[in-house]
Automatic annotation (TrEMBL), chain A:
Keywords: ATP-binding, Nucleotide-binding, Transport
Protein name: ABC transporter related protein
Coiled-coil annotated residue ranges, if any: none
PROSITE patterns: ABC_TRANSPORTER_1, ABC_TRANSPORTER_2
Pfam families: ABC_tran
Gene3D superfamilies: P-loop containing nucleotide triphosphate hydrolases (3.40.50.300)
Organism, as annotated: Candidatus Roizmanbacteria bacterium GW2011_GWC2_34_23
SUPFAM superfamilies: P-loop containing nucleoside triphosphate hydrolases
Signal sequence annotation: none
From TrEMBL, chain B:
PROSITE patterns named in the record: ABC_TM1
PANTHER family xref list: ABC TRANSPORTER PERMEASE PROTEIN HI_0355-RELATED (PTHR30151:SF20), ALKANE SULFONATE ABC TRANSPORTER-RELATED, MEMBRANE SUBUNIT (PTHR30151)
GO biological process: transmembrane transport
A Gene Ontology cellular-component term: plasma membrane
InterPro entries the UniProt entry points to: MetI-like, MetI-like_sf
Organism: Candidatus Roizmanbacteria bacterium GW2011_GWC2_34_23
SUPFAM superfamilies registered for this protein in UniProt: MetI-like
Family according to the record: Belongs to the binding-protein-dependent transport system permease family.
Upper lineage: Bacteria, Candidatus Roizmaniibacteriota
Subcellular location(s) of the protein: Cell membrane
Name the UniProt record assigns to this protein: Binding-protein-dependent transport system inner membrane component
Amino acid sequence: MSAPKLIIKNLSKNYLLSNKKTVTALKNFNLKVFPGEFVSIIGPSGCGKTTLFNIIAGVEEQTFGTISLDGNIENSRQGKFGYMFQNPLLLPWRTIKENLILGLDIKKVSKEIAFKKAFSLLKEFNLEKYEDQYPSVLSGGMKQKVSLLRTLLFNDSFLLLDEPFGALDQITRQSLQLWLKQVLKKFMTTTLFITHDIREAKLLSDRIIKL
Amino acid sequence: MKKYQSSFILIIILLLFWEIYVRAEFINMRILPPPSHIFEALYSHWNSLFPHVFQTLLEAMMGFLIAVILGFALAVLLDISPKINKTIYPLLIISQTVPIIALAPLLLLWFGFGILPKIIIVVLYCFFPIAIAGADGLFQTKKQFMKLLKSMNASYWQGLLLVRLPSSLPSFFSGLKIAATYSVAGAIVGEFVGAYQGLGVYMQQAANSYSIDLVFASIFLTIILSFLILFGVTIVEKRIIRS
């Protein structure tokens, strides 16, 4: 078996409240994720799943513990993961193709190359007819598809998917689960996935972790 | 235009009521001329009014544009760091408690009777709503968007230009609309205190010679100028905010 892509060691997160009391959101969490693996994290609301993702993505700092990516301990992890939120967070003033290249704009990729990449991705998943539309005309499921493609275009080596289908109805959810499987198979992406739905976790994952 | 139909009808009704009230001699026409006399005076004195209208419009537009630049820069400055915000914000509030009409004579002393003191007065009237609305718009960027930007390792300026500024535009334009309505009134305040030309000067001259119809004609033109600037802002808003 190849070396783990991600190693999380003794990760803890404490929050200091305004009354000077401390709340522990995560305590001594350990995890190894191997290249190309799809690992689901399940657990009740408030158990620290989103905090864990925020820390991995570098949005929040951990109180204790280390995170290694490709064998190196990473203290500055921003930009090293593709992080997709429960809310699609599409920018309403940007067209679909402009939304797709947001991460590439931040990476200062030239517009020409960025749009080419965005178009080929949209075409690959039969969404090219929406490239010049604004997010307001898309359904909830379509918005999530675009959001996932934006995340992939930013970073297709490691995805953090935080309940991406949580707000969708059952039928849309099932079709998106199959679609996600198909997308990730093409990209061979390593994925950490948060869900409440044990059936969803079983369908998609190589491994399930309970937090 | 359709959405303003009801207010247009209300204005017509009020003008008609005013016309009938004065013509029925409930009030002396010399004290309150009917709208028909005001429009007649406006038409017959248009040639002498025009240079004053142009002067006031010039002062209001220049002051407004400078206020937009200053207000915008100040909004970004307030946003850059909480420390700067805490230092500058109270000063901004203090600046608004000073009655600008009291500052006008001082500005006249310092900068003379030319266009500059009027432009400064317009700027003083307009920059505050622009700066505050702009800063509020920037502060109110959704937390989730901030998280997204952070996860993508966006710099402050990238986040500002790509996400926060576009998302704050509706709030920024609200401030611009308020400022647009202040701009002409600001110019007239400046002209009242001392000027060679402008609607403020014309209004004073008309009042001094008891030409009440011309005072009202100047007020009417002030309203039209304010609407013109507001209309311009609305057009720019519609072009910029696409969805």
